[in-house]
């Protein structure tokens, strides 16, 4: 599991394994039935304090959602029905967990 974390291969872990790896991280609970634009999702997940900061981070290539680098802050976020959590990475070492 640690290899997947350090090699940026989180998509190879199951949701249960991700819960174990990120057990000590703060989690935010959101409603999967709600429709999100990426920037609004990141704001609700408390990745940054403002949309301006989030746009800058996205422009710098510093945001990943489930190992997918985010390039468009206005993109629509799609959550699978069986998905229990989403892992957000800001920079190299900052992780945020969203539980659905």
Automatic annotation (TrEMBL):
A Pfam family this chain is assigned to: SYY_C-terminal
Q: Which residues cross the membrane?
A: none
Domain Tyrosine--tRNA ligase SYY-like C-terminal: start-end pairs: 23-98
| GO MF, one annotated term | tyrosine-tRNA ligase activity
What are the protein's UniProt keywords? Answer: Ligase
Q: Which EC numbers characterise this protein's activity in its record? A: 6.1.1.1
Q: What is this protein called?
A: Tyrosine--tRNA ligase
**Originating species:** Mycoplasmoides gallisepticum (Mycoplasma gallisepticum)
Taxonomic lineage of the native organism = Bacteria, Bacillati, Mycoplasmatota, Mycoplasmoidales, Mycoplasmoidaceae
